[in-house]
Design goal:
- The protein has 153 residues and is α+β, with helices and mostly antiparallel strands.
- The chain has five helices and six strands.
- Strands 1, 2, 3, 4, 5 and 6 form a six-stranded antiparallel sheet that branches.
- Helix 1 packs across helix 2.
């Protein structure tokens, strides 16, 4: 099962890096894609090809490029491709305890079926205006740990 997951993630990494680098982004690295999706199981991605994983991750990073410390970014997205039976709810904020539990409980309370939660913690660098300049590798250090949450309902 892990081998199948790894193949999907590797395919997504290749597609994502090619797509984003063609637009001149320096944020595209295979490690970012792996860290974002590392906790997914084959069942989590069985109905989503690597191109969908790429599109959703790329969209989130582009959307989260501008954020000042202490601010929260929140959005709901209905994917714009064919017949899709889910919505995406995303939050990017400084890391906070119990945020995922609180957001998930709120969505369930409002009648949404939360099918998938992606909750990586990424260390990033932003300039003084809050523009994302780098997503750090695991071994790099920073005081700013961000929690980009991606919930599929």
């Amino acid at each position: 099962m892990i081998a199948e997951r790894d193949l999907w993630i590797q395919a997504a990494q290749r597609i994502w890096v090619d797509a984003v680098q063609s637009e001149g982004s320096h944020l595209a690295t295979p490690e970012v894609a792996e860290r974002f999706y590392r906790r997914l199981t084959p069942e989590d991605i069985s109905d989503r090809g690597p191109d969908v994983l790429v599109t959703e991750l790329d969209s989130m990073i582009r959307w989260a490029r501008q954020r000042r410390p202490g601010d929260a970014l929140v959005r709901g997205v209905i994917p714009d491709r064919g017949e899709v039976d889910y919505s995406i709810f995303e939050v990017v904020t400084d890391d906070m305890p119990f945020l995922v539990d609180s957001v998930t409980a709120s969505l369930v309370h409002r009648g949404h079926d939360v099918r998938l939660v992606i909750h990586p913690q990424l260390a990033v660098l932003r300039d003084s205006a809050g523009t994302l300049t780098k997503i750090l590798r695991s071994e790099e250090h920073t005081s700013e740990l961000q929690s980009p949450d991606h919930l599929v309902c």
